[in-house]
Prior knowledge:
The chain is mostly helical. The protein is built from seven helices and no strands. The chain is 56% helix and 0% strand.
Amino acid sequence: MAHNNWTRTQKFERSIKCHFKRFVGLCLSTDDEVLNKLFNFQVRNLAKGLEAAALSKWRQRVLHFPFISIEKRTNPKTPLLPKVFTKFNNFLKTKCNLCNNNSINSAHHLRTVHSLPIPSTTQLLDELERDSPPASFNLSRASLLKIKEKRILQYLTFMFNILKLSF
């Protein structure tokens, strides 16, 4: 993949993103910024890193090193997100019931037209990351998910109460 053409790599990345969205339950029109925050997967960078590791191993074998050493890659941390996050994201992609012009419930639309203080999906991810308790608290995964779920549910219930939609 490191020596493939750009189009083939882009098609492969697009396919992976589409399958990830379907697997997680996100709307297919979810922005790439959100996906990059959820999982940072770039085929070209991964292929270049694997190629560099293979070349390093090959050079060490050619020079007859008894112990082959390569740099270990550090995997990026994936954020912990509750299932309610997909409902929040997908709600921001639906049509607004209050408007007659079939506009979409994007965060920008809700802020400007309806004066609702709703963050966009990327802003919500940043907010959850910023406000999550530090690692020194040693909270379990379940309790971290509960805290994040409570924050997202506050926004969802606020939106549904104001827009008078059934949840």
